[in-house]
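Quick one:
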Amino acid sequence: MTFSKYKFSFFLSVLLLFILSGCMYPGDDQMSQQTPYADQLEAVQKAVDAYKENTSGMLPIKTKEASTDIFIKYPIEFSKIVPAYTEKIPSNAYETGGIYQYVLLDVEENPTVKLVDLRAAERIRELNLRKNVNNSVPFKEAVGQNVYEVDFEKMGFKSPVTVPSPYSDVQLPIVIAGDGNFYVDYTIDLSRALREKNPDVTQGEDIRFLLSDDYPIVPAYSLPYTINENNEPIFLK
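Output:
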């Protein structure tokens, strides 16, 4: 092998190794956009607290309709706190290409910064587009009062559409309510929380707080849940 051929072979080997490494390991930028870093949450929380203190109790949030679900009702408006109260928008926020929307919970008593995993919102958006194209509501078997499985085959999918759980390594189902809206079904994660923590909850109480209290990510795009007589999660009527 001539020297020039050797150099070409070496270059080709290095290039192949680089390509394979890129396929096997996500880049730093991609990882930073998908990880709910505690330090970023803390920085935004401090900024929200400072903004509230300096504005006589106002919060840096966008306005949503009163009927909006509590977990997505109070998105943080970063233009109100960046750069005055925090240096930059977190790398995992959707405003900078991340998969999370920063929101506030408990805005009246203790405004707390939480995250919404927008991959669920994207899946639901795709399903709504497909539903509108098909011009039909794909109801299947009932899984609760006025809540149904989705007939994905009728919608043209080869397999059920799911979303990754932000609390475990499972894929969560998507259900459809009687109003034709799609929701993420967190029954799997709520069952685990009830089983492992044995919390003091009562029938008729919305138990989604079991997830939102213990994790930085909230169970967004979901219906309310409660428990039945067997302490199992069911959709709240």
